[in-house]
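Lay summary. Proteins are chains of building blocks that fold into shapes, and those shapes determine what they do. In this project we predict the shape from the chain. Here is one chain we studied, written as its sequence of building blocks.
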Amino acid sequence: VFNEKNNFNKTLHITGRLYGTNNKNRKDTIRMDQIHFYKDRLNLLLSMQYTSLKYYKGMQIFDLGRSEFVPTGFNIGIVGGYEWCKIQPAGYMEIFGNYSYFNRENEHYYGASLTLATFLNKENGFNRGLLNVTAQHISNPLPLGDFTYRIYSNATYTKGFKRYPNEYLFMTDNEIRGFKADSLFGGHKMGLSIGATALSPVLKYDF
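And here is the predicted shape, written in a compact code that computers can read:
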């Protein structure tokens, strides 16, 4: 394990972004309930993020067979901005946070994140919002004969609120198996996954 005095890392990031879309060749009218990426618009975003992390030495967690730096700590941030467009100009607000913890004694890893984002205008107040919550757990190395294995568990919940009538949330390809992911859609979704990785004795040594 690295010396704790040397692995504290506290940073404050302030960033900005300016981007837009201009569809000069599109002659038909874009309705409010259509995908907003087709609209002529200009977006300005400013964000501030504070991060406090420690890094511990681990092995066979994210990168099999190699020593790695495992983060423990948190980051929180806010995003503000404005979208100029002909149909419905609006402000934008977002808050987010992430937390991770690595237990050096039993090598369990825990992670969680929360994001809440929304547009804001005079006519509709808060609208086109999104809430996203995730949780993650990685087990300690478990013996199985000459092998060891880890169990990876993930849970995600996403909910949209006051969105456009045809603006849905879709499952992504890595969230579902067996049929096309875009055949399922709605106003909120939950995903649960669990997997395991078996490690042979050869992989117990760093290289």
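What the prediction tells us: The radius of gyration is 22 Å.
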